[in-house]
Amino acid sequence: MRATELLNRFMKEFGWEALNLGFVVGQRFVWVFTGTYWQLRQSRKPEHYDRSAQVMNIVARFKFDDYLAPAKRSDFILTHNRFEHPGFVLQDHVSLYHVNETEAIFVEAPAGAELWRARYSPFFMAAQYYNAVRVIRMPIQSFYRLTDQMDDPANVTFITNTARCGSTLLTQMFEATGKVVCLSEPSALNIMTRVAEEQENKTDIDLLIRRTVRMLCKPTRNKEVGYVLKLTGPAMPRLDSIARLFPQSKSLFMYRDFLKTTQSISRLSEELYAIKFIYWFGQYSSLRLQHTLAAGGWPKKDYDGFNMSYHLSFGILLSCISHKHYLRFRDMGLKIAAVRYEDVIADPVASMTTVLEFCGLPTDNVELCRRSLEFDSQKGTPLSSERLRRHPTLQYAGEAKKEADAICDKFALPRADQVYVAPGTITYRPDRVIGKLRDLEATE
Fold this sequence. Notes:
Layout: H1 3-34, H2 36-43, E1 53-61, E2 76-84, E3 94-99, E4 103-108, H3 124-131, E5 134-139, H4 140-148, E6 156-161, H5 167-176, E7 180-184, H6 191-198, H7 202-216, E8 226-230, H8 239-245, E9 250-255, H9 258-269, H10 273-281, H11 286-294, H12 311-332, E10 336-340, H13 341-346, H14 348-359, H15 385-388, H16 398-410, H17 430-443
Parallel strand pairs: 6-8, 6-9, 7-8, 9-10
Antiparallel strand pairs: 1-2, 1-5, 3-4, 4-5
């Protein structure tokens, strides 16, 4: 990706935001004359709860990065359609897109669509963005009132990961069992990190988290026995808060060889604007790196004091910080286990059986998980293996290697050229991995 492409994308983003803002301001004047503005104000009063969900038509849509930019209302230009009861959003084809301190935003897909399924997109937010036909907005008070009538999910598992480590494959394997609703990186939970940094009222944050998880795990027609929420990178540091609110939940941390992870992230930067922006703008300055990542929802404090001179360092740093949080969660006593990508590939059925048993989920359909290895949910997208293979592989050598090694040393973690098995890895079987490697060598 050339610098001109990134600059052109930024210009489009600024132009879009200006257009959206101008449209909203002009729309407000129109709504005053049509009476919609008065109806909107009335809908925010408790006595008008039954008509407080505003259904809106989508005129246009745009995001700086379709896969990594956090979800927000301004991703769409919208016009008023009608008001509905908040319970309208409990339908299977309606899902929570974004939530903040003042409102909750949902997207409505075509009837019958289940956007959490991998066939729509490897990532839930992207599936919502591409398939939305309408947007529903409701005041946060109505969102709270609606979710107060919902129960906590009886069986929920949260997945955290290092990025580019096979976690998408893991969610597909959960889905293949036919017994689990699995949401891969819902952007709605990104609010946790920003709100936690800006507010001191822990009770308010907890209420927001609990209600958001309840809505994401709403019952569907599939009669599922459990839910799996794969958290985004920005939400991972707050896993302890989620687990505390849902004490019966289990958590998984998926990781992969550090070098393979960072090389994959580098190739992805040639396809996704958000990562290329981090590489270019975040280099050589800890302050710029913090602000660049904060724009995507990551907590600034995790990256304080790190200067990145080489692209190799970003993936290594991301892996180290993810492992740091995982080890912190273990020390806190969270019910969390690690899953290693190499183990899953070596023996998918045995690994998934172990994972399902840890999560308290049935294993009778575990053989179906093998099919996930044959299905590339990222095919045809910028994340597909076919497209990423076109880009060069970062070399672990020279000054870049020294900087990467220094990062690992600072975190007291093995260097990228060393085999690492994290404490609490439930899928690791040395004989199984060695046997798989011998099979691969025999075919070369």
